[in-house]
Amino acid sequence: MSRSVPAIVILGNGSLATARLIQRSLPGALIYGLSTRVEGADVVYQEFGATLRELYTTNTPIIALCAAGIVIRTLAPLLLEKGVEPPVLVVAEDASAVVPLLGGLGGVNVLAREIAESLGIAAAITTSGELRFGTCLLNPPSGYTLGDLELGKRFVSDLLGGEPVRIEGDAPWLAQAQLAQDQQARLAIHVGSTEREPSANELLIYPKSVLVLVNEEVADLADAIRKRLHNANIAVHSLACLLASEQQMASQALRDAAVELNVPLRFSRADTVCEQLAELTSPPLTVHGDNGITVAVAEHPLDPSRIGRARGRLAVIGLGPGAADLMVPAVKLELTRANDVLGYETYVRMAGPFRADQVLHCTDNREEMQRARHAFELAAQGRSVVVVSSGDPGVFAMAAAVLEALHESRDPAWHSVDLEILPGVSASLATAAQAGAPLGHDFCVLSLSDNLKPWEIIEKRLALTAQADLAMAFYNPISRSRPWQLGRALEIVAQYRIAETPVVLGRDIGRPGQTLRVTTLGQLTADQVDMRTMVLIGSSTTRVFPRAQGLSWVYTPRSYGDKLVEIK
Ligand code: SAH
């Protein structure tokens, strides 16, 4: 299992120097600094507890430069829940101590040793097995996996009790371990890909050395693979990846099987699959063929990232209005998966911070179709690509451009990309929420930009929307190249709505320096609005009342009640 990139979390400027030292030995790691106390961090956070818990639940290794007690208390509520446990360790801000706290099976001691070494000190390792044997037997290196954790723990306590051990099979990483070895020992560490009955006397470690060539037409694929492996006496634990023909790249059955078996799914050109198998390792693989499922066993662990290629992924994501806590979790997760991030520079910056290995492609706001095609080109190579929009990607943003590019393309590689649109909180909804509920009844969303549609259509829609007594949300209300359009739009609306109609102006909502104003249609002038403003215009039923601190609430009731409206 490869470790994800750690987050270095600090609370004050006093820890910055040590944080930078640690960062130097951990490529891609970012320093998270408390907004009010740290200058020059890579990521600025507002709240320590929420940040730490979010890192923990997204399985991010945590290196906190503060007292162990603070970290323990902060994470305590999460510890009772079973699930991921990333490495968590604390480092003294003067670089005098490195203390691993959690994530023994996630390699916390290995990380602690690395950090300690970079600081020229010794790590405070407390795990008995680790101290005695110099390695965590239950956390084999990448390319190997443990058979059973509970049995493993018992096995390690027996070893700690002083019993000797036999090593069966090839375990290069144990060459350095301080184990009392004896060929006659009752206890054995067994490394191999053959299926074995679990037993208390054996610590079973499986090399990820088995590749299964699959075909989507096989019924109940995951089950069929398990049976096939069982019949060949091969442990399912040793499965390194599934390989299929590129023609089947979009197959849901293949994807489900890979998810169920928890292994990567790779693709290769049908005519080269056999050559690929032969080239994979030397000495060559043992191949067990069968209709639809071919099992190949290598002598050493396989590296799936070097077998064929992955199905490319393209996610069009919405960042929400700007504030990190208004970004949906699926979008945050997607950003951590991305190899490439495309978008207008301002939004790409908003989506950060990024790791050193993530490639950013910032382009001008106008080059939408070009950006969409570029995204498919990258994804078709097997990369994981994210296209960013602010707010929601489907509201005057990139999702439609991406779909249009796909619709126009005949390239099968583009059509087999795993395409997903992930929603965000659109500016109209973020603004409405801050003002109350001005869009609480039927409403209409309009862009006032005539760059992509004729102005006559906009005028017609404004008139009909106003007549239909819909509340309105204006996106792109004004810009330097469109100076008069908003004024004209307001004239049209004023023909159907009284001057007292409530209006909400939200500028940079969810971003630093946001402003919210409540005014009326009669008082609204174009100079109060710029291109970073959302304009919400109430319907005939929209009401305003004061709230504390001089602000007001705006809402449109759910019901018309006994109010009479005339809709022509
Ligand atoms: N996809 C975006 C909208 C893009 S159109 C979304 O769903 O929000 C750009 C327009 O959206 C801007 O001209 C402005 O009117 C509005 N807008 C975007 N972000 C905003 C914000 N944070 N505050 C106020 N208005 C915003």
Q: Separation of termini? A: 66 Å
Radius of gyration, CA atoms, in whole angstroms: 30 Å
For the biggest β-sheet, the strand order reads: 3-2-1-4-5-6
What is the overall silhouette? Answer: globular
Task: Report the oligomer.
Answer: single chain
In CATH, what is the homologous superfamily of the largest domain? Tetrapyrrole methylase, C-terminal domain
Whole-number total of structural domains: 5
Question: What CATH first level of the largest domain would be assigned?
Answer: Alpha Beta
Instruction: Supply the helix-strand structural class.
Output: alpha/beta
**Percent strand:** 15-25%
How many helices does DSSP assign? 17
Would you tell me the overall average pLDDT? 91
Protein name: Precorrin-3B C(17)-methyltransferase
GO biological process, one term: methylation
InterPro entries: 4pyrrol_Mease, 4pyrrol_Methylase_sf, 4pyrrole_Mease_sub1, 4pyrrole_Mease_sub2, CbiG_N, Cbl_synth_CobJ/CibH_dom, GbiG_N_sf, Precorrin_MeTrfase
Pfam families: CbiG_N (PF11760), TP_methylase (PF00590)
Structure description:
The structure is a single chain. The chain is α/β, with parallel strands linked by helices and 568 residues long. It folds into 5 domains: 7-126, Rossmann fold (3-Layer(aba) Sandwich); 144-207, no CATH class; 210-309, Nucleotidyltransferase, domain 5, CATH 3.30.420.180; 312-425, Tetrapyrrole methylase, N-terminal domain (Cobalt-precorrin-4 Transmethylase, domain 1, 3-Layer(aba) Sandwich); 428-555, 2-Layer Sandwich (Methyltransferase, Cobalt-precorrin-4 Transmethylase, Domain 2). The strands form 6 sheets. Strands 3-2-1-4-5-6 form a 6-stranded mixed β-sheet, sandwiched between helices. Helix 12 (368-380) packs across helix 13 and helix 16 (455-467) runs parallel beside helix 17 (485-494). The longest helix has 13 residues, at 368-380. It is globular. The termini are far apart. The relative contact order is 0.06. The mean pLDDT is 91. It binds S-adenosyl-L-homocysteine. One of its GO terms (molecular function) is precorrin-3B C17-methyltransferase activity. Residues 314-524 form the Tetrapyrrole methylase domain. Keywords: Cobalamin biosynthesis, Methyltransferase, S-adenosyl-L-methionine, Transferase. InterPro entries: 4pyrrol_Mease, 4pyrrol_Methylase_sf, 4pyrrole_Mease_sub1, 4pyrrole_Mease_sub2, CbiG_N, Cbl_synth_CobJ/CibH_dom, GbiG_N_sf, Precorrin_MeTrfase. Its EC number is 2.1.1.131.
